[in-house]
User: What shape does this take?
Amino acid sequence: MTLIREDKYGLVTNHFQPEVRYTPALPDLLTFILFSEGLALFLIPSWASNPIAWVMAGLSLPVFVWLVFRRLVIRFVLTTPDPVSGKLVDPRWAPFRYVGWGGDVKTAHLLEVDGGEEDLVVILHGRGSSLRNVESRATHIAELGANVVGLNLRGHGECDRRKDWTLLKVAEDIEAMLESLENKLGPNLPKRVWFYGHSVGGFICIWLGANPKGWWEGRLAGVMLESPATSFPLAVESILPPQLHMFKPWVRQILRREHERIHPNISIRYATAQVPHFGIPRVPILLMQARRDNRLGIQHYNLIKSHLDDSASVHLLVSQPHTSAVDSEERKSILEAWLKPQLGGAMEG
Assistant: This one.
């Protein structure tokens, strides 16, 4: 990957596009017209008494409904929930700054342990969560003998950028973080890189694991998934209120246009933003799924399981719910049995 600029925060590469400058679009024009129309009815009595005004208002009603619907879809899908607060507990976390998508300066955290230099686990939390929520998972991995790096995804924790939130931006942020580690660690780069993702973080791990690039491409050793999202359409359906499910064609149209506005150089296909269309990692995979998943349901698990080969280690967790706020001994024991034999000296032995 060709570097085009380096600054005090990290590396900015040629695939990190700047934020698209906002320009008025048709929905903005229609909103202005409807607002002016309503204001005229309220402030100009002579116009309010004119039958033509009410005919125009009646004709504008479907447009108003569409604008409200569009705003709701954008609010539920392309805007992150209110950030989950909470500072990291373990004092060993070392923050470092880097430049992510669109030139945004972001903060990541590196947890280094004695003997963990050969392995690096990238841990990613889910939508509406934070690095603090998955800290127990990170420290458990560190206890097994690997360094861990994590961050609050954009729009989460102490990281802002809640609006125009897309998975493509998050994936670019993670790639930028790994590139900055190449500059930070220098000759001490790990021999093996692993990904651990919960929920939407699992979706990002699948994408990055299936499309590795940069210094870690040949060092990718495995992907660990906990109750992962594996389909953008299914994830959207779980976010939208049930009353809006009957309008799926409108939802697809709105999201396609918004993605094209945010990422003008990338062709977005709603139906193919899921496993296996964007790829399956060709490395060992550990899949741990909450049996009673009250957030994403079991459909995401069924989708990815149908495309995994026999080398994948698949487990249904009885005691672990979907939320990362809970960390069960069952999850820990399964992860430990799968990961520990592959780390550091154990792998060499």
User: Anything to note?
Assistant: Residues 93-241+273-348 form a domain with the Rossmann fold fold (CATH 3.40.50.1820).
